[in-house]
Amino acid sequence: MVDLLGEALGDPSEDVQAKAAMALAGIRSDKAKAYLTLQYSRRGRSTRLVIVQALKDSNVPGAMAGVVAAEAKSIWESNSQTLKEGSVPEKAGAAEQLGRSGRPEAVNRLVPLIKDPQVILAAAAVRGLGNAGDRRAVEPITRLLKENFPELREAACEALLQLKDPAALPALLEVALEKSPSSPLATAAIIGLPRS
């Protein structure tokens, strides 16, 4: 019965998904909870809300936190795997997503990639570092402003704008004054720095 309801969670109809989720909540077994947790990240907003309510009805402590953490872990693992085995465009997308996770280990994964010979991947790693919001990345990103690749320099300016660290000011000022295609982005990053 639990397996049939678990399959029904994958039905194209959101009504069927919702009814299956509520029925699984009534079963109150570990297998039913596992189906609900697994399907959370694969369903739309309305079904997600029903799944969380079903988990709460099953007396699962921290139901919302649990399914969100499971989803975040799944996304992290998927992007980490793509970063190892994907094509260059797939790796670039994964690098940006790892940065968006905000996890401290994202910086450790992405900093080595900013030296990748594939400029598209290096630039994506830089954008990911900007998304991560971790100031440990400021110094390696700032060094990229001296690169010859416009895409890499632009990504560095955008990331430094997000990181808002005054330590990058001298390098950004140099780029802003050189009147290159990267100058407007460097100027925007300078303007975005906190007033001091």
Q: Can you tag this structure with a few keywords?
A:
196 residues, mainly alpha, 12 helices, elongated
Task: Describe the protein in words.
With 196 residues, the chain is an all-alpha fold. Helices cover 71% and strands 0% of the residues. It has twelve helices and no strands. α8 runs parallel beside α10 and α10 runs parallel beside α12.
Question: What is this structure, in a nutshell?
Answer:
This protein is an all-alpha fold.
Strand content: under 5%
* Helical segment count: 12
Radius of gyration: 22 Å
The shape, in one word, is elongated
Order of H and E elements: HHHHHHHHHHHH
Report how far the terminal alpha carbons are from each other: 64 Å
How would you state the average pLDDT, rounded? 88
Q: Compute the number of strand runs.
A: 0
Largest sheet: none
Global structural class: mainly alpha
Helix content: over 70%
Low-confidence stretches: none
Topology of helices and strands:
Blueprint: H1 2-8, H2 14-27, H3 30-40, H4 45-57, H5 63-85, H6 88-100, H7 104-110, H8 119-132, H9 138-143, H10 150-163, H11 169-177, H12 183-191
Helix pairs in contact: 1-2, 1-3, 2-3, 2-4, 3-4, 5-6, 6-8, 7-8, 8-10, 10-12, 11-12
